Amino acid sequence: MRPEKTDKLATMLILLLAGITGLAVLAFLAYLLVTGLPHVSWHFLLSPAKAFQSGGGIRDQLFNSLYLVVLTMLVSVPLALCAAIYLSEYAVQNRLTAAIRLAVEVLGSLPSVVIGLFGYLVFVLQFGLDFSLLAGALVLTILNLPILTRSFEDALQQVPTLQRQAGLGLGMSKWRVTTKIVLPGALPGIITGMILSAGRVFGEAAALIYTAGQSTPAVDYGNWNPFSPTSFLNPLRPAETLAVHIWKVNSEGLVPDARAVSNGAAAVLIITILLFNLLARLIGYLVKRRFAK
Amino acid sequence: MRKVLLGILLAGVLAGLGCGWAAAKKQPAQSKVTVVGSTALQPLVEAAAEKYQRDHARTSIIVQGGGSGTGLSQVQDGAVNVGSSDIFADQQDGIEHTKLQDHIVAVAGIAPIVNPRLGIDNLTLDQLHQIFTGKVTNWRQLGGPNLPITVINRASGSGTRVAFEQTVLRPGEHAVNAQEQDSNGTVKEIVANTRGAISYISFAYVNSRVQPVKLAGVAPTAKNVMTNRWPLWSYEHLYTKRRPDAATKRFIRFMQTRRVQDSLIKDANYISIHDMKVARTPDGQISERR
Amino acid sequence: MDELNQSFKPKPTVAFRRKKTTDRLLAPSVETRQEWGGKLVSCLAILLIGGLVVTLFAFLINKGLALFTTDKFSLGAFLTSTDWRPSHHHYGALPMIATSFAVTVLAGVLALPLALVSAIAITELLPNWVYRVLQPVIELLVGIPSVVYGYVGLTVIVPQLGRMFGGTGFGILAATCVLFLMILPTMTSMTIDNLRQVPQQYRLASAGLGATRWQTISRVVVPSAKSGILTAMVFGMARAFGEALAVQMVIGNAAIMPTCLLSSSATLTSVLTTGIGNTVMGTASNNALWSLALLLLLMSLAFNLLLRVISRKGVR
User: Fold this and answer.
1) Could you report the predicted ipTM of this complex, rounded to two decimals?
2) pLDDT, tens only, B180-198
3) What is the pairing mode between strands B122-123 and B214-215?
4) Per-window interface: A 199-218 vs C, CB < 8 A
5) What structural domains and CATH numbers belong to chain B?
6) Would B106 disulfide with which of B52, B215, B270, C102, CB 3.0-4.6 Å?
7) A22-52 pLDDT per residue, tens
8) Which residue ranges form the domains of chain C, and what is each CATH number?
9) What residue in B sits closest to A51 (Cα-Cα)?
C-alpha cells in the first residue's frame, strides 16, 4: 500500500477509535448527570438522611465531606509545605534524600484501602480515637501528603533560581529567601495543588469506612463549640461522608429510594469536584494575571 | 498592621476554643453510650437512640457500624459500651462469651428468595440443603425449568449466613463456594435481575421484586417465626460487659420495652421479642418460652 | 595614683564592652537563627513523613506475618492453595491473587490502546482548541471518585452483562469494565503529557524527510515517548490493582479460582473490605486478612519498582 493511503487509513482509524472512546466517556458523564440532577434540590441538599423511609437527603454527609476536607488540609498542608521546602531548597543530593524521595513516592502508590486499614489499626484502635472525623482526617492526611508534597515541590521549583540568588545576594538568609521570595512566587501553584488534592480527598471512600465510620449521629448545627459532643464541629464524632454514603446506600440501604439517593449523591459529588477544578483554574488564572501586570 | 490583625484573630480563635472547652467541661457530665457493630442493626439502633435522646438529653448515644466482629471485639476490649451483633458471641471466633452479657433486642426472620420469573415458590428444607451444598445444580432437578442454579451466599461470618447455615446445613458441613455478597440490598438486586438465582435475606428487605420461597408449605411470615414453624430466623443482640453502667443499662432496657418493640421494631419489619413463643440457645436448641 | 587609678579604671569597662560587641558580632545573627529554625522545621516535617512510612510498613508487616508466626499457617499454602474458607481455617489466597492480576492486566491491556489512540488524536491530529476544551473534561474524569465508577458498574454494567451473557453479570468482566473506565482518563492524560513532551523538531525533521503524518507518528513520536507511555500504563494498572470499593461492588466476591470472565470471583481488596468487619481482631481469620493487606502492599511496591525501571530506561 502506498504511504499516503496508509496515512489516510490510519488517521481515519485513529480518529474513529478516539471518537468512540470519547463518546463512551462523555456518555458516562452525561448518564451520571442526567440520572442524578433531577434528584438534586435544596430539599435534597438540606435535609438529613433517613434510615427507613424514602425522601431522605444528604445534608450531614455533604457537610461531613467538606469538614473532613478542611480538617485534612489543616493537618496536611503545613506538613507537606515544610517537606516540600526541605526537598526543594535544603536537600543535598545524597542517599538519604533519595531514600526519602522514594519513601514519599511509595507512600503515594499505596492502595487507599491499605492505608485505611493502617489507620484503623493505629488511630482508631491504638490511639483510641474510635471511628471519628479526626481519625479519618489523619488517614486522609497520609493519603494526601505525597501528592501535596510533590505538587508543592513542583511549584517551588518553578520559581526562577535568579530570584533566589538576588535575595541571597542581598544578604538574606535562605529561610527568609524561601518565605519572602520563593513562597509568594510559588503561591498560585501551591493553591492549585491544594484544591486539586482537596478534590481527591472529597471523593475518597475506601480509606474512610473503617476510620471515619459509616454512621452519622444526630448533630446540632447551632452548637458552635467544637468540644461539645453534639456539635457539628466536634472532630471526635463519627461521620459518614458522601462517597461512603453512596457505597452504603447501595449495599446495606433500607431506604426504598436508594437508587434516587445515590444517583443524586453521585451527581453532587461530581459537581463538587468540577467546582474544585474550576476554582483551581480560576485562581491560577487570576494570580497569573496579577503577576503579569 | 497585618501581623497585628492576624495575631488578634488568632488570639480570638484560641480564646473562643478555650471558652468552648471550659464550657464543655462545666456542663453536667453527659453519660455517653457507644454502640458499635452490626451494619444491619445500625439503622434500628440509630432510630431508637434518636427517640431515647429526645427524653434523656443527658445521655448521648453514638451508633457506629463496622461489622459484628468489630463490635464484639471492641466491647470485649472495653473500648465501647455496647457491641451489636447478628450472631451469638459463642459463635464468633476469638470472643470469650462468658465475659459478655447478651441482650436480645429483636428477632429477624430470614427468607430464601428466588426470581419471580423462575416459577418456584415452595421448597423443602432438604432441597434447600442440596442447593446450598452444591448437590443440586439445575432447577430441573427440583421440578423447575432447565436452568442452572446460581447460588448467592452471604459474606462468611455475617449474621444472616450463620443463622441460615445453622438451620439448613448439618454441623461440620460447609456451603458450596459461591458468589458472596455482604448486604441484603445487593442480594435482592441480583436475585431480582437473574432468573436462576437463589439467596436469602432478612424479611425487612423482601418486596415484590423477589419471590420469597415457602418451606414445605409454610410461608415466611412473622407469625410463623414466633412459633418456630418457620425455622429460619436469628436474634439481634446487644452485648455489654458483665456489669454495664447505668446509662447503658437504661438504654438497652428502653429498646426492650413493649413501646419500642411494638412501634420501631415492627416498623423496621423485625419481630418483637415479646411476641416470641419460643427461645433458641446458641447451639440451636429450641425451647418453649416461659 | 588617684589619677592613674582613674585613668586605669575605665579601661576594663571599655574592654568589657568591646568583648560584648565582638560576642554579639560573632554570635549567630537573627538571620542565622531563623535559618536554623526553618531548617529544623522543614527537616522535622520530612522526618515525620519518613517515620510515617516506616511505621506503616512495620505495623503492616507485623500484622501480616502473624498468620504465619502465631497461627502457624504455612506461607506456601497461603500463596499456592486455592481453598479460601476462613470458617474452616483454610487460607489459600491464590484465587484472590489470580483474580486481582487478571482484572488488572485485562483493564490495562484494554485501556492502553484506547488511551494511546485518544492521546494521538488529541495531540497530533486534531487542532489545538480541541485539546484546550478536552483537558478540563479529562481532569474532571480523573477526579471522579472510584465509588461513582463502582456505582455505575453496579447499576448499569452488571445488569447489561447479565442480559447479554446470562448469569448474574457479576464477575471479572464487570470489574474489568469498571476499572477500564476508571483508569482510562488517567492514562490518557499522562500519555497526552508524554506526547506533548516530544520535541517539535522531531516532527518537523521527519516531515522534512518526506514522511507522512502516520509515518511520523508511528516511527518517531510514539517510539520516542515509549517509556512515558509504558509508565502511564503501569501507573494505571497499579491504581486498578489497589482499587477496593468499586471492584467489591461488581466482582461478586466468591473466593474461588476464576474459571471464566463471567463467573463471580474475588480480589484481594474485595475480600479485605467485606471481611475485616466480620472478624475479630487477633483471630486467625482476621490475621489472614492482614496477610492479604501485606500482599497488597508488597504488590504496590513491585509496581513502583517496575515504574522506576521503565522510567530509568527512558532516560538512557
Assistant:
1) 0.86
2) 777 777 788 888 888 888 9
3) parallel
4) 199-200, 202-206, 209-210
5) 31-108+232-288 (3.40.190.10), 109-226 (3.40.190.10)
6) B270
7) 898 889 999 999 999 998 888 888 888 876 6
8) 1-69 (no CATH), 93-314 (1.10.3720.10)
9) B43
